[in-house]
Specification:
The structure holds 2 protein chains of 2 kinds.
Chain A lengths: L6 H4 L2 E6 L3 H13 L2 E6 L2 H8 L17 E5 L7 H9 L9 E5 L4 H9 L4 E4 L4 H22 L12 H9 L5 H9 L6
Parallel strand pairs in A: 1-2, 1-3, 3-4, 4-5
Helix pairs in contact in A: 3-4
Chain B lengths: L1 H19 L5 H8 L8 H24 L5 H9 L3 H22 L2 H18 L2 H15 L3 H34 L10 H6 L1
The chains are: A alpha/beta, B mainly alpha.
Chain lengths: 192, 195
């Protein structure tokens, strides 16, 4: 049954954290580790692009090994700001699907809007709390479940047929869907 | 166990006073919550990084507000001129320094350093330092050199104060642990008081 679950649930989320402050990198690393995420922390937008393989240089490691599920970046950094990094990521065909979260100590509405418009998943005001990170993780995991359900049409998933009407059917005919419910529970959908 | 109880009470009294006097805020408690057996030195590590980072930032700040023209003061004194001449020269130099400093200081750079300091102090819960940084940034925006100098001194003062307090706090935690007790987390404080 475990193999039917989303592969993301079995593995850890890999988060790339970008912040020029050593103190903040240390804290965000800890927050993410406590939330059972694998963390790579870098100190600048440049290094982040290098890591993601977006800096134009051919990296020897295949992209899949470094698969990043979430990028968390500080807004104000010397050199490349978090906003500029966000733009570069969203304009890359390879990486635009990766959710990017921007963090800032300044609660400036214009800044928040700008980031959200550019495609940021969320804007967090620093200092970031554990509840923020756990909430993010749940959002990403849920997002990945949805992607899995939409994307991978393997035979194993036939019991859970993905349209809303079929879930209604499941609700109305509970007896029929005992195994579907079991599968469903492993995806951790609380309402079901 | 009495020793532990006493140490714990002293610790709670101390940390409560730090909160009351705004040396520390809730973020410090958040950091304590992130510490556990798998990472028992987390708070000490973060605080140490903060101390190191801050000393460096304070140096950078001081040198970016300093103007080399102050060397002239030393030069003047070495000449050992007559009192009248000294007074006149000091006065002229004072005016000149006032004028040139306005042009020479890179307020944007200073602002950058202060922003960093504000961020790191906020991340460890050093509230008074953070607040002083906020005011300092306002002076930078106004290009108010006098305000900047004054507040830089205040920021420095607040930093050394909180550094002292944090070192004491961490030492007290160590003492409790060495005596075989556990460090009370602030949320548990009301319960302890009831005892």
């Amino acid at each position: 049954m475990g193999s039917d679950c989303s592969s993301i649930v079995a593995e850890e989320l890999h988060v790339l954290a970008v912040d020029d402050s050593l103190v903040d990198r240390k804290v965000i690393e800890r927050l993410l580790k406590i939330s059972s995420c694998k963390v790579t922390a870098v100190e600048s937008g440049r290094r982040a692009l290098q890591y993601l393989g977006l800096d134009g240089e051919k990296s020897s490691v295949g992209f899949d090994e470094l698969k990043v599920n979430l990028i968390m970046t500080d807004y104000s950094m010397p050199g490349m700001t978090g906003y500029e990094l966000l733009k570069k990521i969203k304009s890359s065909s390879k990486l635009r699907e990766v959710p990017v979260v921007v963090m800032s100590s300044e609660n400036v509405l214009a800044r928040i809007n700008r980031c959200l418009e550019e495609g940021a998943e969320e804007f967090l005001v620093k200092p970031v709390k554990l509840s923020d990170v756990m909430r993010l993780r749940d959002i990403i995991l849920q997002g990945d479940e949805n992607d899995e359900k939409k994307g991978s049409g393997t035979g194993k998933r036939k019991l859970q047929d993905l349209s809303p009407t079929s879930s209604l059917v499941r609700d109305l005919t509970p007896l029929k869907s005992a195994s579907a419910a079991a599968q469903q529970s492993c995806l951790k959908r609380p309402r079901l | 166990m009495e020793v532990v109880g006493q140490l714990q009470k002293q610790y709670v009294d101390f940390i409560t006073s730090l909160f009351r006097e705004a040396y520390l805020d809730d973020q410090y408690v958040q950091l304590q919550k992130l510490q556990d057996d798998s990472n028992p030195e987390f708070v000490v590590e973060v605080v140490s990084i903060f101390f190191e980072d801050s000393e460096k930032l304070l140096n950078d700040l001081a040198s970016s507000l300093l103007v080399s023209i102050s060397l002239f003061w030393v030069f003047i004194l070495c000449l050992r001129p007559s009192l009248l001449l000294m007074v006149v020269l000091f006065f002229l130099l004072f005016l000149f320094q006032l004028y040139s400093q306005q042009q020479v200081v890179d307020f944007k750079k200073v602002d950058g350093y202060v922003h960093q300091f504000k961020g790191s102090s906020s991340s460890v819960g050093a509230q008074r330092v953070k607040n002083a940084c906020v005011t300092l940034r306002n002076f930078c925006e106004e290009k108010n050199l006098d305000g900047c100098s004054r507040y830089l001194n205040l920021v420095k003062q607040e930093f050394y104060l909180v550094k002292n307090k944090l070192e004491t706090l961490l030492r007290m935690e160590q003492q409790i642990l060495q005596a075989g007790g556990t460090v009370p987390l602030l949320e548990q404080v009301p319960l302890l008081w009831k005892q």
